[in-house]
Amino acid sequence: MKIAMIGTGYVGLVSGVCFAELGFETVCIDKQADKIDGLERGVMPIYEHGLEEMVARNFAAGRISFSTDLAGSVADADAVFIAVGTPSDVDGRPDLSAVYAAAREIANAVTGYTVVVNKSTVPVGTGAEVARVIHETNPDADVDVASNPEFLREGQAIGDFMNPDRVLLGVPSPRAGQVLQTIYQPLKDQGAPVIETVRESAEIAKYAANSFLATKITFINQVADLCERAGADVDDVAQAIGLDPRIGSSFLKAGPGYGGSCFPKDTRGFASVARDYGSDQEVVDAVIEANENRKYRMAERIVDAGGGDLRGKTVAVLGLTFKPDTDDMRASPSLVIVPELQRHGAKVRAYCPGGMGNASEMLEGVDFCDGKEDAAHNADVVVVLTDWAEFKQMDLVQIGQRARGNTLIDLRNLFDPQQVLDAGFTYFSVGRPASQAMQGSDLGAIEDMPRFAAAGE
Ligand code: UDX
Is 154 annotated as contributing to ligand binding? Predict the structure, then answer.
């Protein structure tokens, strides 16, 4: 069984090397020669834990190779996976031109029976269209087109691939199903559930899964707003509802809004594609709007906590990536929050353990610092935007000594409020009442403190 993987982005590269690890001869193909050159030299185009070692191991064993030659590489493959980018166009619809371009190239290159498999996240109906394009380009091509979406999370992508919650196969024929079942047999042997269904169900399931998770996050973020006003603690509320197995405890962490390469794009893609089918996804529409608004509201809260006017003030921003353990800045809340703070006059000093390289190309006018202590230097307000372990473990007393002001705004609820108070900060977190550092005998301070959400709204 030979596998060709078109596209060496997140999904393509991780899936390709994992197929090699499972024992299949795999070639990863990309148009970008510099990426392919780098991969052959062991240089990873993305930051993913364990990836470099796995590539090196399989490259040395001759199970994985890299190429810019699509036609030559897919010719003798039994399965050709398409894992190219599907960026959003202005209406939120995914741009599928790279998928169809790959389909046309594949059509002229395949020999013998080949299963072409969409791994890219695509709207329902794309598999049928890819099949049409292939047969129109080359009526003699003996090809079936299947759908096999990936549910990888950045930072845990290899673990997610090797120990999946489920493998989803959308197949147009038993023959195509057989090829994919063989490819996933090693994971099945380890206990992974494999769902075989029609292509359209698999396509919808991927969008629906991401939209549902985005909905869960957005829901708890709105509950957090109520908790702030009512004096409740959103983490306790999340625990209490999450223990009901019908709800489930994951993805109930309140924060500054979801970001990343998937949720923002896939919710918008799902809503707009559903509309094309005459099915309004009103819930998902509301989620998209609420999440967008939330990022601006978080910026407003920082401005309010900083006294309403940030002119002449310095804000230290800790964490810029959309989540920890990645260098990915795509749709990160920081891309809205930092410019909003600057618009209100703040000078921003920022540090992120993984995102500094990408952030410096996406954020203007920011002082990028060497570490969290450096970022906190002379800051009036310290803000935590991303839940990196490095921040959770930081010495708050030391950060406080470096800062000029004593306001800590933690949009990820990393700290126990008492711990922050003991370090001398006034503490604003998410979905919990604000707590103010007590000076001397000022014991009424906490009670008098306005609720975080109430300020300025
Ligand atoms: C997501 C899906 O989890 C994955 O299955 C899919 O294949 C791709 O999209 P990823 O984008 O890597 O993966 O990130 P994820 O860990 O899911 O987090 C997405 C965003 O939601 C982040 O901004 C994160 O901070 C936020 N989030 C997540 C919360 O705010 N609260 C939570 O409880 C969980």
Answer: yes
> What pLDDT is recorded for position 456?
34
**pTM of the predicted structure, to 2 decimals:** 0.92
- CA–centroid distance, 258 to ligand 1, in Å, is 7
Q: Is 30 annotated as a binding residue?
A: yes
Mutate to test the pocket of ligand 1, among 122, 250, 323 (most ligand atoms within 8 A of CB): 323
Q: What angle do CA 330, 333, 338 make, to 5 degrees?
A: 110
- Per-residue pLDDT at 225: 96
CA of 59 to the centre of ligand 1 (A): 30
Residues of the chain scoring pLDDT < 50: 439-457
- Which atom of ligand 1 sits closest to the CA of residue 154? 12
- pLDDT recorded at residue 457: 33
Torsion of CA 262, 355, 290, 88, to 10 degrees: -40
Q: Considering only CA atoms, which of 15, 125, 111, 17 is closest in space to residue 72?
A: 111
Residue with CA nearest ligand 1 atom 2: 153
Which entry of 28, 262, 352, 369 is annotated as an active-site residue?
Answer: 262
Q: In this predicted structure, what is the pLDDT of residue 334?
A: 98
The pLDDT assigned to 437 comes to 61
pLDDT for position 279: 96
Q: Residue of the nearest CA to atom 1 in ligand 1?
A: 153
Residues with CB under 6 A from ligand 1: 150-154, 210, 213, 217, 251-253, 255, 258-260, 262-263, 322-323
Coil, strand, or helix at residue 403? Answer: coil
Give the distance (Å) from ligand 1 centre to CA of residue 261.
9
Do 2-197 and 198-457 fold alike per CATH?
A: yes
**198-457: CATH superfamily:** NAD(P)-binding Rossmann-like Domain (3.40.50.720)
Query: What's the CA gap between 365 and 257, in Å, rounded?
Result: 24
Return the ligand 1 atom nearest residue 214 CA. Answer: 21
Q: Known catalytic residue: 262?
A: yes
pLDDT in tens, 377-422: 999 999 999 999 999 999 999 999 999 999 999 999 999 999 999 9
Distances (CA, A) of 268 to 119, 176, 224, 271, 333: 19, 31, 24, 5, 17
Mutate to test the pocket of ligand 1, among 165, 258, 336, 410 (most ligand atoms within 8 A of CB): 258
Q: Cβ distance 333 to 323 under 8 Å? A: no
With residue 145 as reference, give the H or E element that holds it: strand 143-147
Do the interacting molecules here have an ipTM over 0.90? yes
Domain ranges of the chain: 2-197, 198-457
pLDDT of 253:
98
Nearest alpha carbon, ligand 1 atom 7:
151
CATH fold of 2-197, please? Rossmann fold (3.40.50)
